């Protein structure tokens, strides 16, 4: 999967969940989707609009009311909905999904399928700041999604990061879709 599209797709908290729900057959109207995600109206609306801008969703012509439209996946959206469904299915618990929907989690996991240095991860992701990357790596390390190994024989010490456990499963799904 293109890393720029992945970063853009996951920049909204509920984008993956909305795509996954549409893949499973949840009705494309706002009320059922909103109820199934348990998201707030504002963040849900922003995620839905973002998916439309990415051309992964479109209004279903001839269905729904102008104030309560119905949405459907585009051809491109159907492809990414399958991937989103597979990723979301790995994190059934609320704690795991809360980490999964953070905007840098999935992109970081996608580039750490093999051990990488902090600078290499930052280079691969492009737009991420040092602070955002550091915080995301720490959160995923706490949840055992990222494994941090320090090479004590080198000076200065060098830490490498690689996806582990659930993080490795997410990384495999994203990289198989490439």
From TrEMBL:
Keywords: DNA-binding, Transcription, Transcription regulation
Pfam family, one: HxlR
GO molecular function ontology, one term from the record: DNA binding
Stored SUPFAM superfamilies: Winged helix' DNA-binding domain
Residues annotated as domain HTH hxlR-type: 91-178
Entries under PANTHER family matching the protein: TRANSCRIPTIONAL REGULATOR, MARR FAMILY, TRANSCRIPTIONAL REGULATORY PROTEIN
Protein name: HxlR family transcriptional regulator
Source organism of this protein record: Shimia abyssi
